[in-house]
Amino acid sequence: MALSKEGRRLRLRRRIRKTISGTAQRPRLAVFRSNKDIYAQLIDDVNGKTITAASSRDKDIEAAKVNKVEAAKLVGKAIADKASKAGVESISFDRGGYLYHGRVKSLAEGAREGGLKF
Question: Does rRNA processing appear among the keywords (predicted)?
Answer without folding.
Answer: no
